[in-house]
Amino acid sequence: KSTTTGHLIYQCGGIDKRTIEKFEKEAAELGKGSFKYAWVLDKLKAERERGITIDIALWKFETPRYYVTVIDAPGHRDFIKNM
Predict the structure, then answer these.
(1) 57, 79 in Cβ contact below 8 A?
(2) Cβ neighbours of 51 (radius 10 Å)
(3) pTM attached to this predicted model
(4) What are 15-72's pLDDT values in tens digits?
(5) The Tr-type G domain covers which part of the protein (predicted)?
(6) Which of 19, 35, 47, 79 has the smallest number of Cβ neighbours within 10 A?
(7) What are the DSSP calls for the chain, one per residue?
C-alpha cells in the first residue's frame, strides 16, 4: 500500500523527482531499491529497514484541480494498534 500510494503521490506531482532519486539511492544502500516510493510515507528507520508500515503517515499535496490528503496506515496486525 505504501509503495502504490507513494508512486501515486509522485505521479500527481506531490513530490519532486530529486527526492524520489534520493530515496532510491538510500533504499538501494539497504538492499531495498524497489521501496523508493514507500519511503515517501514510511519515515521511521524501523519501517525502512523492515519494509513495513509501523505508524500512520499523512501527506498533503495539490494538483491543478484538487487538494489531496493521503493517510497511510499499518496493515500488519501487530501495528494496527498504532492507528
Answers:
(1) no
(2) 15
(3) 0.81
(4) 999 999 999 999 999 999 899 999 999 998 998 998 888 888 899 999 999 999 998 8
(5) 1-83
(6) 19
(7) -HHHHHHHHHHTTSS-HHHHHHHHHHHHHTT-GGGTTGGGT--SHHHHHHTS--S-EEEEEE-SS-EEEEEE---STTTGGG-
- Grid coordinates standing for 13? 506531482
Place of cell 493517510: 71
Q: What single-letter amino acid sits at 50?
A: R
Q: What is the pLDDT of residue 61?
A: 92
The whole-angstrom separation of Cα 69 and Cα 50 is: 25
Structural domain for 31, as ranges: 2-82
Number of domains the chain contains: 1
C-alpha to C-alpha distance for 27 and 36, rounded to whole angstroms: 6
